[in-house]
Amino acid sequence: MSNLHPVFWILAAAVLAPLMAELPLRVKVPVVVFEVLLGIAIGPHGLGLVKFEGFVEAMFTFGMAATLFMAGMELNFKHIRGTPLFLALRGWGLSLLIGVALSALLYATPLARSPLMLTLALCTTALGTLLPMLRDGGQLHTPFGRLFVAAGTVGEVGPIVAMSLLLSQEYSTWQEAGFLLLFLLLVLACVAAGMGLRPAPVIALLSRTLHASTQLPVRLALLLMAGYFVLTEEFGFENILGAFAAGMVVGAATQDKAAKPLRHKIDAVCFGWFIPFFFVGAGIKFHLDAFTHDLTTALLVPLFLLALLLVRGAPAWFYGKHLAPQERLPFALYSSVASLSLVVVITDIGVRTHSISAHLASALVGAALLSVLLFPTIAAALQTPNPAPAGAEGTPVDSD
Q1: Max CA pair span of the chain
Q2: Which three-class secondary structure state does DSSP give residue 42?
Q3: How far apart are the C-alpha atoms of 136 and 117, rounded to whole Å?
Q4: Is residue 303, in this structure, part of any structural domain at all?
Q5: How buried is 210 (Cβ within 10 angstroms: 0-12 exposed, 13-18 middle, 19+ buried)?
Q6: What pLDDT sits at residue 1?
Q7: Is pLDDT at 390 greater than 50 in this prediction?
Q8: What count of other Cβ atoms lies within 10 Å of the Cβ of residue 347?
Q9: Is residue 388 part of a domain?
Q10: Coil, helix or strand for 112?
């Protein structure tokens, strides 16, 4: 009978998770950790209250898109351009080199016949997952936060673009490159229009309907997310690229103070409804029995967890004077939180094309999930709490 009410159990987990995060524990545990753990508890390998199918599976996809959409909204190139972006690009380049070296070692085994897929999975950073944590902790607009947002942006967008160009099954690489250029030009045009074109009648209409039952600006933002989501699929890209791009467009158009009420409403819709389906759904989807019934998978999980820390954590030492010595390890840990959504997409493609084994795919997803559970919690414990409220402006990072 309980399987007929999956939404109730998922929303119950979504409500219980922030309450558990308020417990006076010695270590501050991020809310998303409790969401994933509660998802495992109510899922098929726990109490069996919810199955990953039908509506739950569809909402998981929408929730994944919402996390990328919100990450795109938070992106402000004025804050990360210059030094933060340069360091992020250089760091991701180092991650690629380390990832290729580790993947080449596994290529000699029958587990991984596609070093490219393994490298991309190891080079991801879960910016969409970590932004809520940084914002709730008042770090998003601090120098530390801006440096990480730049690193996380490259760690999220880089693998998405590479996947779209190299792993597409529909078009050749050159065709995909052309479609990607066309798509980026469309995104830039929409960003420019959103920042510059503000006809008085349109602004008046949006302002009037923002607080009405129609909620037209909110509906337009969600329509834009869905539109880019569909457009990227038609171009043969991964649809999460469209969600991130839509967030960039909406974020660029809502930078002024007058748009703050709209951003608050979008926050409420995404964080209150869509995103819990992703994090709780990730726990429901998690195949716990893969680790209890297969020794190879169980041994690969800690190996890949260390690989994530090495591949994405090593570039933290590039930052030198830009990070205080006590900030480097937390920065490395945050950077090493793998993008669960990207890892799931990469491994699904790998298994479907017989490029990686099912054991390796399960181990990669397990390591990505553990990185979400462990690394932010450890990083938060190592950091000094920020007394500034969430959203407060910090000292700007040098962008020369």
Answers
A1: 65
A2: helix
A3: 33
A4: yes
A5: middle
A6: 43
A7: no
A8: 23
A9: no
A10: strand
Distances (CA, A) of 395 to 79, 131, 255, 266, 282: 11, 19, 19, 27, 36
Q: How far apart are CA 154 and CA 315, in angstroms?
A: 13
CA 13 to chain centre: 20
Per-residue pLDDT tens for 161-196?
A: 777 666 655 555 566 667 667 666 766 676 666 666
Three-state DSSP at 294 gives coil
- Classify residue 301 as exposed, middle or buried by CB count within 10 Å of its CB (0-12, 13-18, 19+): buried
Q: Please tell me whether residue 356 adopts helix, strand or coil conformation.
A: strand
What CATH number corresponds to the domain at position 293? 1.20.1530.20
- Where helices occur in 254-294 by DSSP H, the ranges are 260-269, 275-285, 289-292
- Structure tokens that stand for 7 in this block: 């939404």
Q: Percentage of residues in the chain with pLDDT exceeding 70?
A: 82
Within-domain flag for 131: yes
Q: Which amino acid is at 69?
A: F
Domain count, the chain: 1
Phi, psi of 76 (to 5 degrees): -135, 105
pLDDT tens per residue across span 212-260: 888 988 998 899 888 888 887 777 666 777 888 888 888 888 877 878 8
Residue 390 lies in a domain: no
Picking from 119, 45, 137, the residue whose alpha carbon sits closest to that of residue 308 is: 119
**Phi, psi of 396, deg, nearest 5:** -65, 150
What residue numbers bound the domain in which 23 lies?
Answer: 2-382
**Residue 398, SS3 per DSSP:** coil
Q: What is the 3-state secondary structure (H, E, C) of 366-393?
A: HHHHHHHHHHHHHHHHHCCCCCCCCCCC
Distance CA 372, CA 13 (A): 17
Residues 141 and 290: their CA atoms lie apart, in Å, by 40
CB 88 within 8 A of CB 153: yes
**Tens of pLDDT, residues 21-62:** 888 877 777 788 889 889 989 999 888 899 988 899 889 888
